[in-house]
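Pinned message: reference record for 6-phosphogluconolactonase
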Amino acid sequence: MSARRVVVFPSAAELGPTLAHLVASRADKALKDRGRFTVGLSGGSLVSMLSKELPALPDLDCSRWLAGFCDERLVPFDDGESTYGLYKSQLFSKINIPDSGVLAIDPSLTVHECAEDYANKLKKAFPNEDIPVFDVLLLGMGPDGHTCSLFPDHPLLEETQKIVAPINNSPKPPPQRVTMTFPVVNSARCVVFVSTGGSKAAVLKQVLEGGEGPTLPAARVVPSKGELFWLIDEPAAASLTVHVERQSTAAKL
Ligand SMILES: O=C1O[C@H](COP(=O)(O)O)[C@@H](O)[C@H](O)[C@H]1O
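Predicted structure (tokens):
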């Protein structure tokens, strides 16, 4: 386990370019070391940030990228809630990632079949690993402390066998989703949380500093060998007392 780095930016506008540089630098390393770059994407606010910042990087070559989804909502791709649908129209259309480089769910299946099908796609994409080891997982955190579709007090938090699990009763709509489980999340080489806005301040304090009550899902993300970054803005960091790094402009991490 390497040290957690909490990096605070004045606003999301300064944070975005640093996120893009971080992804690009880990992609360069992965391409040199292993000939491909594997990245797990999350939905929510990350979609627009990545879709703005990644295409703005000069010379970004995504031809050997493999992008999966840390979680996905079980809705048709043309539904506004589909994370794949949003990335397809906002990001994949602007970068040179091949269709074969995107591992999407099959939304026509039942939620259980869909989770199994997506797990099989991951196993095929990572044939030499019992648990897929992604180069980078990009995560968000909801105001309740959930990450991926791993929600507080949900039995899925204890899942140790499956690499992808179905969820039928997500407290945040839509109710049916599939999600990577903690064994996959904590096997990644690098995990990057992005959390912005004052609505995240209280939960961020609990996740990063602890407190009473059960450990929130986002606080259970502790990569066993990989790096862990929290990229946050000043409003989200407002209540923190732990050590943080402050950056006023785009930085290389
Ligand atoms: O529902 C979801 O929410 C989380 C957090 O989203 P945010 O908008 O608060 O950043 C997201 O990471 C997850 O992928 C998504 O399915």
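Pinned by admin. Summary line: Residues 198-217+232-239 form one domain.
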